[in-house]
Description:
There is one protein chain. The strands form three sheets. This protein has a four-stranded mixed β-sheet, with no helix packed on it. It has a three-stranded antiparallel β-sheet with strand order 3-7-6, with no helix packed on it. The protein contains no helices and nine strands. It is mainly β.
Amino acid sequence: VETFNVFVESIDAQPDLSEFPAIVQVEHAVETTIPFAWSDVDSSASSLTMTANRSWVEVDLDNEMLSLTAPTPGYTSVLLTLCDATSCNERVLDLHVVS
């Protein structure tokens, strides 16, 4: 019979934001919803935040949906940042805005 001690050190895992399709086509000046998926093994949804670098993009983290109304036709990118208490993960959403 042997006795030994095991010390388990917690590791703060970075939140995971899934990849988006290469280019998402949306209509100019029409509200569009885009689903996304995220996970974080060591944080609850209430302790996470997600932001976008465009004022016309709204994030609904609980329902995993983006709502956006692109103001200008053409190609544009949106940087999305998902953060827990200690780390962040970023993804780029590339849009083709058609009129």
